[in-house]
Structure formats: structure tokens, C-alpha cells
Amino acid sequence: MDPLPRTGTPGPPLALGARRAGEVLVVSVAGELDAATTPELQALLDRHRLPAARHLVLDLGGVTFASSAGVNLLVEIADAPAHAPALHLAGTENRVVSRLLEITGLTGVFCLHPTVDDALREH
């Protein structure tokens, strides 16, 4: 089930970026987060989490579409073992992301921040 319908012309499937800010791994996600693209995000996370980051900030401000596969990946990351980095979601003022979190009832599950800078200020 895709909770958010695609609107307009589809853009590039997925663009990812990663950078370190001290003990924080910041991963930017732009484009469509669905069954075809979530493995790319998972692979990037697997590559960049070592050496271990204490916090993971996913910048979802550029997400243009998200399916249940995207939601499942976020939940899997949040449910990772205690030694995994704490998950923070940034870019949550993006209507696609905010609506997705509202529809799924997950707004209380994640640490939400309007921007990456807001998330980084906590650390």
C-alpha cells in the first residue's frame, strides 16, 4: 500500500548523500523512497555507520514520494539494537514526510526536527 499517491511528473528515483558532523552521521535523502530505492539507502547506511556514529540524522526534506517500504525501513532503523545510533528525522516540515508520519501514527516514534541544523544543535 502506498499511503501517498505520486503527483506530477516523477523525478529522479533517489539521491543520497552522507557526511559526518562529529559523532553524528547525516544522511540526506531526496526523491522517491519506495521498494525499488530503500535498498540503496540501507546499503549507504551500512557503509557509513562504521566507525560507529552515536546519532543518525536522516534529512528527508527532499523526499518527493514514500511508500510503505520507506516507512518499514525507518521503523527498522529505529528498532535497531541499543548499540545502534539514535535516529533523528530532519526535514519533517516537508509535506510528504509530515503526512506520512501522521497517516502511519509514527509522529511519536521518532525524534523530529524541521532542519538538519536543528537536529545537530541537540548534540
TrEMBL record:
Pfam families: STAS. It comes from the Bacteria. Residues 14-123 form the STAS domain. InterPro entries: Anti-sigma_ant (IPR003658), STAS_dom (IPR002645). This is STAS domain-containing protein.
